[in-house]
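re: the backbone from monday

yeah here it is again, tokenized this time
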């Protein structure tokens, strides 16, 4: 084995319900506009779109209830509450009917977005990274293994700020379902164990402020609590 010129960073990981082991994270894929009402609120026609993807960096995760520091170079940071799929098995060209076998578990996550920077990049036809893949942009709760909760396909998904309901939807409103997402994504990328997929957000996205308390909840999956500092 070669010696590194400096110590490599630790592998980002998520805790797992009722387990001493942790889930090592490989990549974070995100699905855009996967709830019709959210696509409409962003100015798009949900009937006309194939799913599209972007990525966050694994070390953008915020775990174990840590705080979300308000990021630089923005004055419009939005919350996007999302169901997160955690893969235990990778592959290429995975069939829809086999896709769920690749899932280890699910979690509640937030796709925090510098909306002003994302909007600028969109307008100029540039990549979204500065809007989406910044430090601390991916708060995520602990993983709930499939062994305990199965594969949630319906149930309410909500986000409250300081106790006030801001986002509300149901997992049954996902335009592209989890097996379809895994199948399509595996045609574009070779999926690996440890990949996370953020599956898109329901309507009601909006800005957060320093001092806000965000409470995300997905029925049958769990909860996520984040303070904006
Ligand atoms: Mn999102």
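seq for it, each position gets an aa:
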């Amino acid at each position: 084995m070669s010696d590194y010129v400096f110590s490599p960073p630790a592998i980002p990981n998520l805790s797992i319900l009722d387990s001493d082991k942790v889930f090592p994270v490989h990549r974070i894929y995100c699905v855009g506009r996967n709830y019709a009402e959210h696509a409409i609120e962003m100015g798009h026609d949900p009937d006309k779109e194939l799913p599209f993807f972007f990525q966050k960096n694994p070390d953008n995760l915020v775990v174990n209830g840590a705080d979300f520091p308000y990021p630089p170079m923005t004055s419009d940071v939005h919350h996007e509450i999302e169901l997160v799929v955690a893969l235990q098995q990778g592959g290429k060209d995975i069939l829809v009917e086999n896709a769920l076998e690749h899932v280890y578990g699910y979690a509640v996550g937030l796709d925090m977005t510098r909306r002003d920077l994302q909007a600028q990049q969109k307008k100029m036809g540039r990549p979204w990274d500065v809007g989406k893949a910044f430090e601390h942009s991916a708060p995520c709760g602990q993983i709930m293994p499939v062994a305990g909760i199965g594969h949630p396909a319906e149930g309410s998904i909500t986000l409250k700020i300081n106790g006030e309901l801001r986002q509300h939807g149901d997992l049954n409103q996902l335009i592209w379902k989890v097996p379809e997402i895994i199948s399509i994504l595996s045609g574009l990328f070779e999926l690996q164990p440890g990949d996370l997929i953020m599956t898109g957000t329901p309507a009601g996205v909006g800005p957060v402020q320093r001092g806000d308390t965000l409470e995300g909840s997905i029925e049958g999956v769990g909860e996520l609590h984040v303070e904006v500092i």
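Residues 30, 80, 82, 111, 198, 200-201 surround manganese (II) ion (CB under 6 Å). The chain has one domain: 13-227.
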